[in-house]
Amino acid sequence: MSVEKAQIFAMIAMAIDAREKAYAPYSNFKAGAAVLTQSKVFSGCNVENASYGLTMCAERVAIQKAVAEGETKILAVVIAAGDDQIVRPCGACLQVIAEFAASGSIPIVTATVNGEYDIHSLDEYMPMRFELKE
Ligand code: THU
After folding, report:
1. Parallel, antiparallel or unpaired: strands 107-111 and 74-81
2. What mean pLDDT do residues 107-126 have?
């Protein structure tokens, strides 16, 4: 299952837009995300907290919105952050992406706010990961 380039570009634009809503008064680091599901794309931004550990990354916010709307299959993830340096998803987010990914080959797109991007699969980011097997 592959995702069209045009879809990826549209999601990069959505993630850059969503980043504008970031609540990041502590780190001043804004991130945006877009998550493709079977029905639609969900966006998210990072939401920080005065109790720092409660901070939620942009990609997890987008995934939680999708799941709360009944979409539990993720086909692609885009993260937009940083001016000139591509930002990688954190380990916690990769584990949450893995929970809902349609397969290990789904694309994780990391984009700068200027629109440069690269694409690696979930399997590339997290080749050995925790899964609960009966
Ligand atoms: N952050 C994200 O939202 N996504 C990432 O992929 C990396 C980090 C956020 C968390 C925190 O609000 C800020 O960036 C600095 O770590």
Report:
1. parallel
2. 96
Report the SS3 class of residue 13.
helix
Token pair belonging to 16:
């850059």
Q: Whose CA is nearest to atom 13 of ligand 1?
A: 29
| Structure confidence by residue, pLDDT tens digits, 21-43 | 999 999 999 999 999 999 999 99
Residues with C-beta less than 6 Å from any ligand 1 atom: 24, 27, 29, 31, 46, 48, 55, 57-59, 79, 87, 89-90, 93
Give the chain's length.
Answer: 134
The reply to whether 51 falls in a domain is: yes
Count: domains in the chain = 1
Reply yes or no on whether the pLDDT at 85 is more than 90: no
The yes-or-no verdict on residue 51 having pLDDT over 90 is: yes
**87 C-alpha to center of ligand 1: Å?**
9
Domain, as residue range, for 101: 5-125
